[in-house]
Amino acid sequence: MGGVITRDTSVVIIGGGPGGYEAALVAAQLGATVTVVERDGVGGAAVLTDCVPSKALIATADYMSDFEVAARLGVRLQDAEGDEVSDAVALADTVNHRILDLAAAQSCDIQRSLEQVGVTVLRGAARVAERGLVVADLADGTTHELAAEPVRIDDGDVGAELGSDEGGLVAAGAAAEDRDSLAWQGHDG
């Protein structure tokens, strides 16, 4: 059946960053049974610590700059008593909580999108234990064994195809912690 995805095809994706969740959506739309294992939250660093938070900080800084130039544009800010307000102050704790809330909400939205197309999302860390077997150590303390073949590891630098053409595992967006472990499958790390 080389290359045809059916519900008999099991795809396990280690890492729910942009590459991982997009791969999960495509595999599910093509008919595979898909599981994503993500340690920190779907969307990965892009959503949780990088792109979304940095854009929120930039927006905050932009507003601070707008307040600083308002007087030059003829705009004066006043408090409730009518006194001029000359300084804008960003409350770091409030800004940080807003950013964390935005990132968490986007991560939840992405997870809901995955679940709506039938993808199972597990919170935890996963590893390839042996050919065709992924072990997921979940946040709740349980362990799940997930079958998937072939194994495709893509960490952005190095890609390795392990196994046959039936089923698959994709690890996208996260660097392999021990590339030497790929050698047991007959590939150099």
Description:
This protein is α/β, with parallel strands linked by helices. It has two domains: 11-43 and 110-179, 3-Layer(bba) Sandwich (FAD/NAD(P)-binding domain); 47-105, no CATH class. Helix content is 33%, strand content 26%. It contains four helices and ten strands. The strands form two sheets. An eight-stranded mixed sheet has the order 7-6-5-2-1-10-8-9. The protein has a two-stranded antiparallel sheet with strand order 3-4. Helix 3 packs across helix 4. The radius of gyration is 23 Å and the shape is elongated. Mean pLDDT is 78; it is low at 154-167 and 176-189.
Task: Walk me through the topology.
Elements: E1 10-14, H1 18-29, E2 33-38, H2 44-48, H3 51-70, E3 77-78, E4 84-85, H4 92-116, E5 120-130, E6 133-138, E7 143-147, E8 151-154, E9 159-162, E10 168-172
Helix pairs in contact: 3-4
CATH topology of the largest domain: FAD/NAD(P)-binding domain
The CATH homologous superfamily of the largest domain: FAD/NAD(P)-binding domain
Average pLDDT works out at 78
Could you say what the CATH architecture of the largest domain is? 3-Layer(bba) Sandwich
Name of the CATH class of the largest domain: Alpha Beta
Structural class: alpha/beta
Number of helices: 4
Strand content: 25-35%
What is the number of E strands? 10
Low-confidence stretches: 154-167, 176-189
Overall helicity: 25-40%
Major β-sheet profile: 8 strands, mixed
Spatial order of strands in the largest sheet: 7-6-5-2-1-10-8-9
Give the domain tally: 2
Shape: elongated
